[in-house]
Amino acid sequence: MTGPLQIVLGTISVLFLIVSVVLAYKAVRAMVRIIRTGQADSSRFGPFGPRMKTLLVESLGHTRMLKWSAIGAAHWFVFVGFYGLFLTLVEAFGEVWNPAFHLPLLGEWSLWNLFADVIGTGTILGILYLIYRRQKDHPRRQGRASRFAGSNEGRGYFVEAVVLTVGICILLIRALKISSDLTEAPAWSHPVSGLLATVLPDSPDLLSVVAFVKIVVSLVWLVVLSRTLNMGVAWHRFSAFPNIYFKREGTSGAPALGPLQPMTSNGKPIDFEDPGEDDVFGRGKIEDFTWKGMLDFTTCTECGRCQSQCPAWNTGKPLSPKMVIMDLRDHLYAKAPYLLGEKTAAETAPDFDVLKPSDEQVWASGYARIEGTNDAQAHRPLVGTLEEGGVIDPDVLWSCTNCGACVEQCPVDIEHIDHIDDMRRYQVLIESNFPSEAGVMLRNLENRGNPWGVSPSTREDWIKEVDFEVRMADGPLPYDVEYLFWVGCAGAIDDRAKKVTKAVAELLHTAGVEFAVLGSGETCSGDPARRMGNEFVFQMMAQENVETLNGVFEGRVPGTRKIVTTCPHCFNSLGREYPQVGGEYEVVHHTQLLSQLVEEGRLTPVTPVDRKVTYHDPCFLGRHNKVYTPPREILDSVQGLSTQEMHRCKDRGFCCGAGGARMWMEEKIGKRINVERTEEALGLDPDVISTACPFCITMLSDALTAKKQNGEAAEHVEVLDVSQILLRSMAPVGTPGTEHGAEVGTADDDVAGTGSAATGHGQA
Description:
Elements: H1 4-35, H2 48-60, H3 69-84, H4 86-95, H5 110-136, H6 139-142, H7 153-179, H8 191-197, H9 204-227, H10 232-245, E1 264-265, E2 268-269, H11 291-299, H12 305-309, H13 311-314, H14 321-339, H15 375-379, H16 394-397, H17 405-409, H18 416-429, H19 436-448, E3 471-472, E4 483-486, H20 489-493, H21 495-511, E5 515-517, H22 527-532, H23 535-552, E6 562-565, H24 568-577, E7 586-589, H25 590-599, E8 612-615, H26 629-637, E9 642-643, H27 673-682, E10 688-691, H28 694-709, E11 718-721, H29 722-728
Parallel strand pairs: 3-5, 4-5, 4-6, 6-7, 8-9, 8-10, 10-11
Antiparallel strand pairs: 1-2
């Protein structure tokens, strides 16, 4: 059935294929060379088994994509269609020469035909839904609220058009084979194309033309891809697999949350006591990133899931995690000839102050300030203002709260927080360029061991306010002491957090849990210093604390070195970051321990608490450490409570604004994050906004106080830790704070009947 038409189309197809393959080979080779210019990182390669399992589960199971169910399901069909129906492209090269061509062995196999029919149809329906969602969520309709704001829409349209066209061609070719009587596969194996065949002519030539169109569209896509190395919306189809395999938490398969990684240079942790002369501190240039960082930048699909969840972006700040990665990616590939030695930059930097914001900067400062490959690109500072030609604007860098929403939502496992904090490290340690108010916090940490700068003896003041004995750790703990209670800076110093400390201590005492505290021997865990980029101060404080803790736990075997803390930031640092400096402990959050004590019957809530409660997930307890259930179990155990979840909760919870050392920085741009979150909570008309973090209590309380002053919140609404609610439920019936009403929570003596000030509330 080969005629002149088939010979012409077949010849063109083969020639186009040769050109496309050559260009694709050169593109992949160039991309690999560029990525290999990054710093070494040997931690990404093993173990093979768990990493491969994670790759298969995430890719085939689409576990990250299905966090958004409908979009995830649609993308799954497009994904399976792209790889599973690749052989239909191979078959098309035969069909363009001979319309009756079939793949050997597979071509007439019923199950293959059924698979191709179902997945081909699913691909078309899937991409149509994704096209609909892109238009429904388009920036022209939603403005800044669109997750596609700042994405390259033209590239997205191109990829969608290619997928749709190829999917239609697959079904048309199959239908034309049926209408032209060129297949012997049973009717049940091609239900959709069989139906389509009823309206198509008997035309083998038309089949060859459609096969040619399928080939040309596919190869045009490949050529465009090969000529545009920063086209993540297309390249992620290939780079996503290694990016998932080489993810930071490859063994567990978890996203890159929880502990921040130590500073490394050339693949090795930096020894701050004796750093090497050529050690690179943080990321000050694009070539300072590791090869995995560069792979991250390459893989970004510009889908905007991270952006849609980012608390900074959602409150009018310039930070978009998506655009940070896009900016780094575009700068990397624009500077690539200089990194590879193909070009040499002039010794003097150009005058950047003539730059004007581009159209894209409607969405975020720092985006696309310099385009193309040129000396200006080569001399750009990684972080800098418009006048300085910076790739990332300082306001972008310092807006991050480290909440982890971006990392949690990213379908291709990009490690946004690690990259942002690495850039912060360079700004702090090398440039000494950071928000001035954060400098006060750092000096307080170095001089007094706490962010407030108060005397260490202040840490013991709360002990005088409880009516039972609290043991002080003096040397190794006696073996009858089960837990060391790590109070934390806020829990010992901040008045609101001290109430939580006293409530937890009283509950542990009631349950018969033997615990001790360090008192003035405790210093900050170092989390604020590390999260703002001062790794040196963190290392100093962490090593000091590890020395103290190892002395307290001297002689204890693993499994008996138990710490309980009320602060999720301390919980994360002590449990997941201190092993980096030799501190191995079993760290639990107070909600985990209290939930266990309730379950064991050692704490029994008996008094109904007639209050409507909504729970706010602290980021470092929830997303970073996956502790979602224990706080809710505690609330569920309290009779009379009516609980209702906020729209943004659990792994989509909204930050209070205090993480990433933002607790110690002024919030000068856009709407305050704590106000946004408090308004969401107040929308449910609660009596209590509950949480389990001292920073969250401070941020939410401040916003609630402002709302009360403006008459936008009822006076009886309060912010309480779950432990305070649990303690109220153990007080006698009728105790102030347990009943419902407008007066609840306003009386100065509104204590939960325990004889202590443990759950005092109603004060700012």
